[in-house]
Amino acid sequence: MAQSIRVSSRPPTYPAPEFPPRKPKLFARTPPALFPVLLGLLGVGLALRKGLDVLALSGGLADLFLGAVGAVWVFAVVAYGTKLARRPAVVTEDMRVLPGRGGVAAISLGGMAMAAALAPFAPRLAAWLLILSLLVHGVQAVVLVLVLRPLPQPARQVNPTLHLSFVGPIVGAVAALALGWTEFAALLFWAVLPVAMLIWVLSAVQFAREVSPAPLRPMLAIHLAPASLMATVAAQTGQGGLAIVLAVLAGTYLAILLVSLRWLLISGFTPIWVSLTFPLAAFTSAMFTLGWDWPGVVGLILALGLVPWIAYRVFKMWATGSLAQRTNAAEA
User: Which member of 110, 197, 203, 237 has the lowest number of beta carbons within 10 Å of its beta carbon?
Assistant: First the structure.
């Protein structure tokens, strides 16, 4: 006997909208995308310190700039720490998307850059901050591996943000040099060099197979950062020949990016543009470190114009709440 199918004519019910709309708790949706641009600003401050020294000018302006950016970085860390304290698992949700993945890694990288900024004035505080940042970064890298393992293959593809998580300790090497820890800086350099080379090779192979989607193309600039930072560290740890090779590699890649600028930025301004900030600052510092002053001055002028402008746009989006929405930041 055929069973009769009962069809309900009642429309489906949905929960009534909240009125007034629910407001998230304070800092509950702090976007990790804040931290790459803060890393870029810290990098500009460190490059400015080197540039003013090369030009025989007072470094007070650079120190003032670093102090102001450092205060914002501390506030952002407190904000994200508050979010994390409410629900620690929120960090794994942030790391499932590319902007959050790079942003979480940039938190501890910012700590390393802050250590480099503090080293001339408070070496003991800088040393503790560097050690803590390296430990946190190591934990973050392990968590990222655990987060990526169950994701589908497209989400686990090699991408430039992997440099932040797995080559990021090179920023710690820069801070170590500022503290006079030359051997430790060399150790970090040799530890991350093969990892950076592997990511470059795999990224080149992947790029040859498929072109990056237009909205994600600014992330390609991240490849410039490790080459520049490793050139800086190599030059200061007695690896002069290797430093030149890395600096030439960085300069060649920057030239390719500049030639491809229209293609790179065709989607217009998005929070992904933060990927342009810290690589440019790192390249500028590398030029000054190797004594290539004119490229350094040009890079510094570009960085002083571009990075604060991007930071202003990003901070404005943070203030209105749109940064969290556009980068899919998780809510605690």
Answer: 197
